[in-house]
Write a structure and sequence with these properties.
The protein is α+β, with helices and mostly antiparallel strands and about 240 residues long. It has four helices and 15 strands.
């Protein structure tokens, strides 16, 4: 069964109500959700489900289900479980999610400063990284940090764009990531556009304007194998978000 992905249309939604459609070993499935499931390098959301009887169910992680666009909410160990058919209120850990949104968008900008094939990536609330297939001598932390921050301060609005699977096939250069391919099967693919900066397939959550990212810091650059050069970044300061 599929889940209505409310975050796909509005990444700033912090809460919603939903109906429980399944409870199993993997977790809780709802008919709709604001919780982003782990994917594309971005960690899954945490938060709580609030029952009508006043009980709180802590959600320790969110993962993709077996069906296309299905989402499994993973309860914390020992948490009570809701009943199928029950209506619950959903609340994500907004501070954590917003940090993920800022860092995820920052990686899009970073990928336009380091121009090389992307071999991997990861976004956690406190730091994020991209791995590149590039010679180590071409990577300089100060240059990358300065170039990324110069693009961020432009304050450009981000845009969501949809194209068909067939159109993506005719534009393979849009896919920068070698390790993760855009999800197919629904007939269309979601892209993030930062006008004048970036355009690439991405199903993650992003800020509305790159200025919300704030300044980033390059924490370190290191070699991760024969082909991977890892650039790790963090936000310079928390946001009021």
């Amino acid at each position: 069964m599929t889940t209505e992905l409310l975050f796909r249309d509005d990444a700033y939604l912090r809460s919603a109500t939903a109906r429980v459609v399944a409870v199993g070993e993997r977790g809780i499935e709802l008919d709709r959700t604001v919780f982003y499931p782990q994917g594309g390098g971005q960690m899954g959301d945490t938060g709580v489900l609030l029952r009508a009887n006043g009980e709180t169910i802590a959600i320790a992680d969110t993962r993709k289900g077996d069906a296309l666009d299905s989402v499994v909410h993973v309860p914390a160990p020992g948490a009570a479980l809701p009943d199928v058919g029950e209506t619950v209120a959903l609340e994500i850990d907004w501070a954590r999610r917003y940090a993920l949104m800022r860092l995820h968008t920052a990686l899009h900008v970073l990928s336009c400063v380091v121009v090389a094939p992307v071999t991997g990536g990861n976004i956690a609330p406190d730091k994020a990284r991209l791995d590149f297939d590039i010679d180590m001598s071409l990577l300089d932390a100060a240059t990358i940090e300065r170039g990324t921050n110069e693009l961020i301060v432009r304050g450009i609005d981000t845009q969501t764009v949809w194209i068909t699977d067939a159109e993506l096939d005719t534009r393979p250069a849009l896919v920068k990531t070698m390790s993760v391919q855009p999800p197919r099967g629904a007939g269309r693919v979601r892209l993030l556009r930062i006008p004048g900066i970036d355009l690439q397939p991405c199903g993650g959550t992003h800020v509305k304007n790159v200025g919300e990212i704030g300044a980033i810091r390059v924490l370190r650059i290191r070699s991760e194998g024969r082909r991977n050069r890892r650039v790790e970044i963090a936000l310079s300061a928390p946001a009021a978000g």
